[in-house]
Inverse folding.
């Protein structure tokens, strides 16, 4: 099981690195897909089976397709990347991200609760248990999330509508 | 065989930092959004690992992860719509070219 975890972690890290390092946004999106699938398997390992499936459907399905759609829509005829302002921005990014990682790992340098069994709590991640928790105990946040999705849908439609020239005044 | 909780946390920290670097250093706005997605995923794996390690009986961690997923979907939809809209008006999605509000 640790071997599986190591393999999945490697795949996820390779995917994440590919997102950042590839120049072509299409390859970035496909690396993102790799990362998402590795995470989905890891969710199943954490006995959150339903979330693993949802990860595949929502992230690997909807979001990556959305990214690819936008890249295909506008990425084909992007103007050439300008030079200048590039090296120091990248260096600053590396330094800030490394500092951030150090801070996170520093926070982890303390005794943690004991480890987790690889697969357990057989119904912990099942649709039934999760549905009960979601629709009974957490019904208000659930409804709020639906309003959030509706708002995002309307916002997406309004923002991406074809631009109309403003009327002459 | 038991996997230590810290493995998950270290992996999540690394992935979050990679996403953070993407948000800071990439110039393509689509790549910046991909960095945000990486960060949200790292948060999700943290939530699930803590749920499994501390409170496996209650499903709070999974509920949290579901809401993070919802927010990520909404964020991707609105963010990509914004990018399309910006591209229509400015003909670029390089984030450092969008300095209209820079003093």
């Amino acid at each position: 099981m640790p071997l599986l975890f190591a393999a999945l972690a490697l795949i996820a890290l390779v995917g994440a690195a590919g997102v950042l390092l590839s120049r072509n946004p299409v390859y970035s999106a496909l690396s993102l897909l790799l990362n998402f699938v590795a995470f989905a398997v890891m969710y199943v390992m954490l006995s959150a089976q339903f979330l693993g499936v949802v990860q595949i459907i929502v992230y690997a399905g909807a979001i990556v397709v959305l990214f690819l759609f936008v890249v295909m829509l506008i990425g084909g005829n992007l103007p050439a990347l300008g030079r200048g302002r590039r090296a120091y921005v990248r260096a600053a990014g590396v330094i800030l991200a490394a500092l951030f990682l150090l801070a996170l790992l520093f926070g982890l340098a303390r005794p943690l609760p004991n480890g987790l069994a690889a697969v357990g709590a057989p119904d912990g991640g099942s649709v039934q248990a999760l549905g009960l928790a979601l629709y009974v105990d957490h019904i208000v946040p659930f409804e709020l999330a639906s309003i959030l999705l509706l708002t995002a849908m309307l916002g997406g439609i309004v923002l991406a509508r074809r631009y109309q020239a403003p009327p002459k005044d | 065989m038991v996997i230590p909780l810290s493995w998950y946390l270290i992996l999540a920290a690394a992935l979050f930092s990679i996403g953070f670097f993407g948000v800071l250093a990439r110039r393509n706005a689509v790549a910046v959004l991909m960095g945000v997605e990486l960060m949200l995923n790292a948060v999700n794996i943290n939530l699930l690992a803590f749920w499994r390690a501390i409170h496996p009986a209650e499903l709070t961690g999974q509920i949290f992860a579901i809401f993070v997923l919802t927010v990520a979907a909404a964020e991707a939809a609105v963010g990509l719509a914004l990018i399309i809209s910006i591209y229509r008006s400015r003909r670029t999605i390089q984030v450092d070219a969008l300095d209209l509000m820079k003093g």
About this structure: Chain B has a mean pLDDT of 86.
